[in-house]
Design goal:
The chain is an alpha+beta fold and about 350 residues long. It has two domains: about 230 residues, Aminopeptidase; about 70 residues, Beta Barrel (OB fold (Dihydrolipoamide Acetyltransferase, E2P)), CATH 2.40.50. The protein is built from seven helices and 19 strands. Helix 5 links the parallel strand 9 and strand 10. Helix 2 crosses helix 7.
Amino acid sequence: MKKGKILTCFALITLCFLLVSNAYAQKSLTVGEVTAAPGEKKSGYLVVPAGSDAPEVKVPITIINGKEPGPVLALTAGVHGYEYPPVIALQRLRKKLDPSMLSGAVIMVHVANMPSFMKRTVYYNPYDWKNQNRSFPGSPDGTMTERTAWVITKEVIDQCDYLIDNHCGDGNEDLMPFLYCTEVGNPEQDRKTRELAVNFGIKVIIHEIDRPKDPSQSVYCANTALVRGKPAITTESGKLGRSDEEDIKRLTHGIYNTLKHLDMIDGEVQLLFDPVWVTEYQIIRSDYDGIFYPLVHRAQHVQKGELIGYLTDFFGETIQEVKSPYDGIVLYIIGTPPMGKGEPMASIGKFK
C-alpha cells in the first residue's frame, strides 16, 4: 500500500475513534437554570411561573454530573412539604457525593413543594389546597401545584433514566419504613424496578400493579416516570413530621446502595436483611369530620376485625369504628386528633 493511502486509512480510523469516543463521552446536563459540565456539581433553581393564584416559586435543585458516562438518577424530596427526613438526606448527599467519582449524573430536587414546606402544611399546597403527589404530570396552565408538577415532569422526570421519590410519614402519620414497587406490565422495565426496590434496602416492599397507566393522568411522581418507561420507586422513612436520625440514615444508605447497584459509584450493595413483600394493602378512610383516636401503632400486627381506632364527633360521641380488614400489619395510622371526611385514618398491609 502506498504511503498516501496508509495515511488516509489512519486518518479515517482516527476519525472513527473520535466519533465513537464522543458518542459515549459524558455531556453537560441542564435542568432549569442550572447547567453542570462533566465533573461538576452545581445548584440552583427550577422556576415555576406565577399565576393568578400564586407568585413565582423557585424549587431548589442540584446536579452532580460525573466525569464518566452512565445513567441519570433523579432523587426527589419534599413533594409533601411536611416530610423532612428526605429533605435532610438529600442535603447530606449533596455534600458527600463527589462528581469525580461518579459515572452518570444525579439530579436532586431538594424541596419539590416549597409553599407547603415553608408554611408547614400537611399534604396540601397552601395556595390551592391540592396534593402535589396527586397532581402529576401537572399542567403549565393549572394551579400552583399543577404548574410545579409540570415543571418537575419536564425538567427532571423527562431527563432521567431512574427515579426515586422519597417520602415519610407526614406531620399526622405514624408510619413504619417501607417502599412502593409498582409494575406496569413491561417485563424488562418491571425487572429493573424490582431490582431498584430490593437493592435500596428497606425491608418491607409493597408490590403494586394497579397505578394509573395513562401518561397524561399519571397522578403520582414516581408513577409519572414509570408510565414514561423509566424504573422508579417511592420510599417511606420517617413519621409524624419528625427528623429522626435513623430515618435520615435509612434514606442515605438506600441511595448509596442504589448508586452502587446502578454502577454509578464503586462498591458493593449492602443489604441488612431480606425483603418482605406486601401483596395487598387497604387504606381506611374517614366517613366524617371528627376527632380520631388510634388504638394501635405503626408496625403492629393486627387481626381481621380488630378495632384499631375510632372517630368521635366534636362532643366525644363515637361516630365510626375503624377495624382491620384482614390479618396484617399497620403500615401507618394517623397519630393526631383532627380528621377530615375522606382522609386516610390507617393503612393495613397483608404479607405474601
